[in-house]
Amino acid sequence: MQHNQAMTDLSKITCIEDLRQIARRRAPRMFYDYADSGAYTESTYRSNQADLQRILFRQRVAVNMEGRSTATTMIGQPVTMPVALAPTGLTGMQHADGEILAARAARAFGVPFTLSTMSVNSIEDVAEHAGRGFWFQLYMMRDRDFIARLIERAQAAGCGALMLTLDLQILGQRHKDIKNGLSTPPKPTLANLLNLATKPRWCWNMLGAKRRYFGNLVGHVKGVSDLRNLSVWTAEQFDPRLSWADVEWIKNRWGGKLILKGIMEAEDAHAAAQSGADALIVSNHGGRQLDGAPSSIAALPAIVQAAGRDIEVHFDGGIRSGQDVLRAIALGAHSVYIGRAFLYGLAAFGEAGVAKALQIIQKELDISMAFCGRTQIIQVDRSILRPGTYPVAGQ
Question: Annotated catalytic sites, by residue?
Answer without folding.
Answer: 285
